[in-house]
């Protein structure tokens, strides 16, 4: 049986759009995961070690300020496209698109304000949480309205992440979670 708790984690600064950041805690007998509505971030993932004690095995921050500052995408969903797009340019259906450059001459993990830096709309499920957002046509230079759903579910000792996207135009998409693991615990 998975327990799902919802609580306020903090308030986004006004200059970053404001809004309440929520934390969702999914807990089973052997795993506890904390997920934020900001960037669908996995803020903590605790699992039992050999000694039966829980240890957090992902890197992250205890406060919202850590996630709103500069960091290496700790635990976040990155996109529209994870990784680098050289020179921030691509061609689809004969049309060239120029993306925002945020990694030297390249576009990295969705640009200046990728999926990791925005608030997502959550829906609590019996064994998890589903986050939704609409990335509008032209956001960071990408074509098409893109509806995205990221669902986290916890069943016993298994955490699953499911990605679903629907677009109004042909567009590149490559979503992933950018968690950093330290299996020895923090």
TrEMBL record:
Q: Does the keyword Protein biosynthesis apply?
A: no
Q: In which pathway does it act?
A: Carbohydrate metabolism; galactose metabolism
Instruction: Show the coiled coil region(s).
Output: none
CDD domains tied to this protein:
galactose_mutarotase_like
User: Does the UniProt entry include the keyword Magnesium?
Assistant: no
Question: What does it catalyze?
Answer: alpha-D-galactose = beta-D-galactose
| Molecular functions per Gene Ontology | aldose 1-epimerase activity; carbohydrate binding
Q: Which UniProt keywords apply?
A: Carbohydrate metabolism, Isomerase
One GO term of the biological process aspect: glucose metabolic process
Which family does the record assign?
Belongs to the aldose epimerase family.
User: What is the recorded function of this protein according to its Swiss-Prot or TrEMBL entry?
Assistant: Mutarotase that catalyzes the interconversion of beta-D-galactose and alpha-D-galactose during galactose metabolism. Beta-D-galactose is metabolized in the liver into glucose 1-phosphate, the primary metabolic fuel, by the action of four enzymes that constitute the Leloir pathway: GALM, GALK1 (galactokinase), GALT (galactose-1-phosphate uridylyltransferase) and GALE (UDP-galactose-4'-epimerase). Involved in the maintenance of the equilibrium between the beta- and alpha-anomers of galactose, therefore ensuring a sufficient supply of the alpha-anomer for GALK1.
PANTHER family in the record, alphabetically? ALDOSE-1-EPIMERASE, GALACTOSE MUTAROTASE
The protein depicted here goes by the name Galactose mutarotase
Q: Which organism is it from?
A: Columbina picui
Tell me what gene encodes this: Galm
């Amino acid at each position: 049986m998975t327990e799902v708790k919802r609580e306020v984690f903090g308030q986004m600064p006004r200059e970053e759009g404001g809004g309440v950041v929520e934390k969702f805690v999914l807990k089973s007998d052997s795993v506890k995961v904390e997920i934020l509505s900001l960037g669908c971030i996995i803020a903590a993932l605790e699992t039992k070690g050999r000694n039966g004690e829980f240890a957090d095995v992902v890197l992250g921050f205890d406060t919202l300020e850590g996630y709103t500052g500069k960091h290496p995408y700790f635990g976040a969903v990155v996109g529209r496209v994870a990784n680098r797009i050289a020179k921030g340019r691509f061609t689809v259906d004969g049309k060239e698109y120029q993306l925002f450059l945020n990694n030297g001459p390249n576009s990295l993990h969705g640009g200046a304000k990728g999926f990791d830096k925005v608030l997502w709309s959550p829906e609590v499920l019996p064994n998890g949480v589903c986050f939704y957002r609409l990335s509008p046509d032209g956001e960071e230079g990408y074509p098409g309205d893109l509806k995205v759903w990221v669902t986290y579910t916890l069943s016993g000792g298994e955490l699953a992440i499911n990605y679903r996207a629907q677009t109004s135009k042909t567009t590149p998409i490559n979503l992933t979670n950018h968690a950093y693991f330290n299996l020895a615990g923090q």
